Amino acid sequence: MIHADRKKHERDEVMRDFRLGKIWVLICTDLMSRGVDFKTVNHVVNYDFPQSVVSYIHRVGRTGRAGRKGVATTFFTDDDVEFLRNIANLMVKSGVHVDPWMLNLKAATSKRWKEIEKRPIKRKTISTEMGKNTNKRFAKLLEKDAKRLQKLHRNQHGDDNEEE
Predict the structure, then answer these.
(1) Are the beta carbons of 56 and 31 closer than 8 angstroms?
(2) How far apart are CA 106 and CA 5, in angstroms?
(3) How far apart are CA 116 and CA 83, in angstroms?
(4) What CATH number was assigned to the domain covering residues 33-123?
(5) CB within 8 Å of 16: residues ≥ 6 apart
(6) Do the Cβ atoms of 46 and 58 come closer than 8 Å?
(7) Cβ contacts of residue 4 below 8 Å, gap of 6+?
(8) Which of 51, 58, 86, 151 is least surrounded by Cβ atoms within 10 Å, i.e. has the fewest?
(9) pLDDT tens, 3-31?
């Protein structure tokens, strides 16, 4: 993983290992979207939506270098939808097929883009703990279903298998 909190020598070591093929997947922040040329990157995944069109260009520009083909996948949330059309228009101009629904979205104004560059969308923390990513009502429903399934399992396989 590469991010600004790492010391330069640590980042350089990770980049060297990636270039040598010792590391196959490199996770990094926007820090790596400019000025670094990895010729063999064939897939970029944007886990958070870029805060500007320029940022998007630099991020996806890490793949498909020097005439090679590449793939870019960008995840987005409801908060990002207003910015999606601008990115979709850019993709169309680059010759990429884009689903028509993206081109029919209402586009964010340039004023809104400037706002988001100054004050990015506050993202929720992503966690593997269900309670941190799931609303409480849905979590309770899941817990209820789990108990119901355990009870059903015990009834079908006898009470002596409760430890399973």
Answers:
(1) no
(2) 37
(3) 10
(4) 3.40.50.300
(5) none
(6) no
(7) 29, 31
(8) 151
(9) 777 888 888 898 888 888 888 887 777 66
Beta strand residue intervals within the chain, DSSP E: 43-46, 71-74
CA angle 58, 102, 33 (to 5 degrees): 10
**pTM of the entire structure?**
0.62
Residues 6+ apart with CB under 8 A from 87: 50, 53, 56, 74
DSSP helix, strand, coil percent of the chain (3-state; round to 5): 50, 5, 40
Taking the C-alpha atoms of residue 124 and residue 132, their distance in angstroms, rounded to an integer, is: 9
Amino acid making up residue 96: V
Each residue's pLDDT tens digit, 63-91: 776 677 888 888 888 888 888 998 899 88
For the chain, the structural domain boundaries read 33-123, 124-164
Cβ atoms of residues 151 and 86 within 8 Å: no
| Contacts for 52 with CB less than 8 Å, ≥ 6 apart | 113, 116, 117
